[in-house]
Specification:
With 237 residues, this protein is α/β, with parallel strands linked by helices. The chain contains eight helices and seven strands, in the order αααβαβαββααβαββ. The termini are far apart. The site of S-adenosylmethionine has 21 residues, from helix 4 and strand 2.
Length: 237
């Protein structure tokens, strides 16, 4: 009961401050400072969210020089791909389903003076080859019925619509992840607790026996969580 009312309070506070938060997240200098992205063009107004920020912390913890990294759903700025390539000597494959996003992200990476990123179009893993030491994803996770109530979300459904419980894209990623992770590799999966309770996320990972939840990266101030997922050592039935 206490947890439910605290969550409701957070929801109300979050939605009361949402316009202010959106303006903060539209500041080019903040985007450059946080993610080393030179904002030479955008496809839509939404630049990043609280999950992108918590994923940034998780990347700081798990990204090492020499790794092969996959950014699944890189978005129109290629934010996390650019960030990875700017802080470590890594090779990055960055994919998105939206061709316009990929073209813009490529321009941004050139302007941000990072190299070693291969941007291309893919429906999650469908057009991806090889294995990766680190797979990063901030997939759409807002339940359809919740997102449809927010006016600012009506366009670019692709960026937020997580289906009936918010977890449809995450499940698709977990289904294929074991084949694309190196033996010691990790998947950093970001989800926002305001939309997807931690218990639901944990249960979802438990539904995939080939994977195990190694830990959760949290933030003191932000509602997003990053689930750190690796091979369990069990084979898929
Ligand atoms: C919440 S945005 C994340 C953008 C960016 N990575 C970030 O962290 O700010 C989700 C991204 O996933 C992409 N996406 C949605 N469905 C996809 C799919 N089936 N295959 C690949 N990318 C997809 C969207 O186009 C969008 O760019």
């Amino acid at each position: 009961m206490a947890i439910a009312s605290r969550k409701l309070l957070w929801m109300h506070l979050y939605h009361a401050f949402a316009p202010l938060l959106r303006s903060i997240r539209s500041l080019p200098f903040l985007t450059r400072w946080l993610f080393h992205v030179n904002l030479v063009g955008t496809v839509h107004q939404h630049l990043w969210d609280s999950t992108t920020v918590v994923l940034r912390s998780a990347i700081g913890r798990y990204l090492k020089d020499g790794q092969r990294v996959l950014d699944l759903g890189t978005g129109h700025l290629g934010t996390l791909a650019v960030y990875c390539a700017s802080i470590r000597n890594v090779t990055v494959v960055a994919v998105d389903r939206d061709e316009a996003f990929i073209e813009n992200a490529r321009r941004i990476s050139q302007a941000s003076e990072v190299s070693g990123i291969d941007f291309h179009r893919s429906d999650w893993f469908s057009n991806v080859a090889g294995t990766f030491d680190l797979i990063i994803s901030n997939p759409p996770y807002i339940p359809t019925s919740v997102g449809d109530q927010h006016k600012h979300l009506t366009a670019f459904r692709n960026t937020w619509d997580g289906g009936s419980d918010g977890l449809a894209p995450a499940r698709r990623i977990l289904q294929d992840a074991p084949r694309f992770l190196t033996p010691g590799g990790r998947l950093l999966l970001g989800l926002d607790q305001l939309y997807v309770p931690m218990s639901a996320a944990r249960d979802m990972v438990a539904d995939f026996p080939a994977l195990r939840l190694e830990g959760v990266v949290t933030s003191l101030w932000l509602p997003s969580k990053v689930y750190v997922i690796s091979h369990s050592g069990k084979s898929t039935p």
